[in-house]
Request: fold
Amino acid sequence: MDIRMLCLGLLTLKEATGYEIKKTFEGPLSHFYEASYGSIYPALNKLTEEGLLTCDQQAQDKRPDKKVYSVTSAGKLAFMDALQKHPGRDRIRSEFLAVMMFARLLPAGHLSRLIDDRIDEYRDRIAHIDRECAGVMAGEVETFICGYGKAVYSAAVQYLEDNRHLLESEALMGSTRAAE
Amino acid sequence: MDIRMLCLGLLTLKEATGYEIKKTFEGPLSHFYEASYGSIYPALNKLTEEGLLTCDQQAQDKRPDKKVYSVTSAGKLAFMDALQKHPGRDRIRSEFLAVMMFARLLPAGHLSRLIDDRIDEYRDRIAHIDRECAGVMAGEVETFICGYGKAVYSAAVQYLEDNRHLLESEALMGSTRAAE
DNA sequence: TCGTCATATATCGAGTTGATATATTATGCA
DNA sequence: TGCATAATATATCAACTCGATATATGACGA
Reply:
């Protein structure tokens, strides 16, 4: 399930422009799947070439033309087919944990600040998810996904608070051994 | 903190070959940061060109030459410098949640199987982390990172078990509306 | 004997990010 | 009034990364 297929799936639910698809990727989806214009626009072009999408180009006054994409019947079949395949494993890249690998090399104050900051960031994310899903418009699927994000980020915050001492006892206690 | 810098950091802790670095990325690190040969070998070459690494090429009987990389003093400084920068946000791509977006389009049996499989996969990961960190050799940092992984995956399993009904009530109850 | 795993390096196509370019209108704010 | 910034809308590009593949050889078990 790459971005190309995910665009096809989103258009199966509702026709949209590339710009609107990008907005969708900035909603609840953003917590577990990101996509940039640099992948979305080429994906839409390729899907159109392949006959899985049609493009209705709408001239607008005072705005660039809108290209509204809709799924063809071949597109619907292709997407249903892609849904049958076993989804790949989660891919995670945490620069925070990567830096924590080197806790011993960091001055204690700096390490503690990094952990504080990360806890704040996760709390912000949780608050953000709450705002996104507070609306009456959220269906079961959206509720499920938002809840998933909250569960995971809450667990991360809890873990950091309960176990940060493991790292903080390892860090340089005010010394500057870092440059040795 | 890209793979290039992370290689430099690992070599700061211990000199190694590209092959050994790949092995390191397959340990506890693998749960939050992955790297392939296709990024590791070019990274080592570039770091060497830049004077941040030195390479000791050891001819071996009956084996390809080993290239053992060590960090130069310039390399140490460059890495300490990189550690000062605020780590970027976590990047997560979950194909599983992407597929769950389309729960309505899936036959109920298929959906349930997907969720069962994902719970099993997370449980396997937790068991795998336990094995990795059971050894006496694990230091505080490794313990911290393994614990983080366990906390997050446990929360995910718990959430899936408690909330799967939200999706399962949305799925096609045995019908084949999928192709409509 | 045959397959497969481990050791070891390397490359390449394809997918992706983040920045940047282009052009116009709307909005806030001093 | 003027000026910066955000929003609407599409598009491209260098740099990074993955997953597969290539190349060689030895060991180990079926």
Remarks:
- Chain A touches chain B through 64 residues (CB under 8 Å).
- Confidence is low (pLDDT under 50) at residues 174-180 of chain A.
